[in-house]
């Protein structure tokens, strides 16, 4: 396995659960950004591929939820994730960049909140 691939594999295998969620948010945001660029360049097939990747990541985020422990917060996040999947589906069907922008904003806010929560827990405030 080449060095870079080994590094990437190790990065995921050794990441904390908190870091893994951040990586999922980053992946979704990256794919939404790539989809926007593809739409701007009239590369519909590429936009479709990137939107599908973003959707798959949102489904993975949904699978990470623990509704028993997370109670109302987990249930609310699940609803937000379902909303995002729907928005991404509509963006893919209608090739609407505005829906991608909305999804990007929501995911960016969630990522920022998750990152801040991790800092507070690390500092003993959470």
TrEMBL record:
Transmembrane segments: none annotated. Keywords: Bacterial flagellum biogenesis, Cell projection, Chaperone, Cilium, Cytoplasm, Flagellum. The keyword Chaperone applies. It comes from the Bacteria. One of its GO terms (cellular component) is cytosol. It is found in: Cytoplasm, Cytosol. One of its GO terms (biological process) is bacterial-type flagellum-dependent cell motility. The keyword DNA-binding does not apply. Its main location: cytoplasm. Pfam families: FliS. NCBIfam families: fliS. Belongs to the FliS family. This is Flagellar secretion chaperone FliS. It comes from Cohnella herbarum.
């Amino acid at each position: 396995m080449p060095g870079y691939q080994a590094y990437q594999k190790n990065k995921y295998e050794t990441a904390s659960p908190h870091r893994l969620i951040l990586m999922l948010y980053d992946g979704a945001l990256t794919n939404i950004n790539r989809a926007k660029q593809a739409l701007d360049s009239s590369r519909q097939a590429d936009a479709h591929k990137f939107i599908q990747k973003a959707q798959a990541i949102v489904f993975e985020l949904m699978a990470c939820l623990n509704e028993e422990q997370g109670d109302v917060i987990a249930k609310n996040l699940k609803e937000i994730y379902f909303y995002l999947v729907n928005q991404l589906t509509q963006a893919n069907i209608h090739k609407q960049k505005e829906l991608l922008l909305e999804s990007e904003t929501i995911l960016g806010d969630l990522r920022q909140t998750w990152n801040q929560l991790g800092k507070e827990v690390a500092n003993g405030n959470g």
